[in-house]
Design a protein that fits this description.
The protein is an alpha+beta fold and 138 residues long. It is built from seven helices and six strands; from the N terminus they run E-H-H-E-E-H-E-H-H-E-E-H-H.
Length: 138
């Protein structure tokens, strides 16, 4: 006899490191199949696996021409911030000032690797923060 494992909303939230409200929203939208048994929502493991595979991910986003948005030669703001060990807001500021060339696709910036390396070469990230009076060392 084939028995399905069942999960609760709390189980899925813990596994995926998301809120219970996000799981409720997925059920409400119809993305995640679930059944209500008395007062508890139960989700079969097969439905959970299907939902997880089809779940939206920014990492899977595509450029208008169909190529991956982020790859080895195209970085996100978060990737550049990790690369230079600084905050994302500093990278956004460098883009705003024009020191770093980036292409905006939807709400995201795509930064070519050469531009990301230029940030380190010219020490752009540290330069913007050191001029501000709050960041000056006393």
């Amino acid at each position: 006899m084939n028995q399905d494992f069942v999960l609760t909303i709390k189980d899925i939230a813990d596994l995926e490191k998301i809120s219970c409200q996000a799981v409720h929203l997925a059920i409400k939208k119809g993305d995640l199949k679930a059944e209500k048994l008395h007062n508890i929502w139960i989700i079969r493991d097969a439905d959970f696996i299907t939902w997880k595979q089809n779940k939206y991910s920014r990492a899977k986003r595509k450029m208008p021409d169909g190529s991956p948005m982020f790859s080895d030669d195209k970085l996100s703001v978060k990737d550049v911030a990790k690369l230079h060990q600084c905050s994302e807001s500093k990278v956004y500021y460098a883009i705003y000032k024009g020191s770093v060339k980036a292409e905006q696709v939807g709400s995201q910036y795509v930064i070519p690797r050469k531009e990301a390396e230029k940030v380190n070469q010219y020490n752009i990230i540290r330069r913007y923060t050191s001029k501000h009076p709050i960041y000056r060392r006393k």
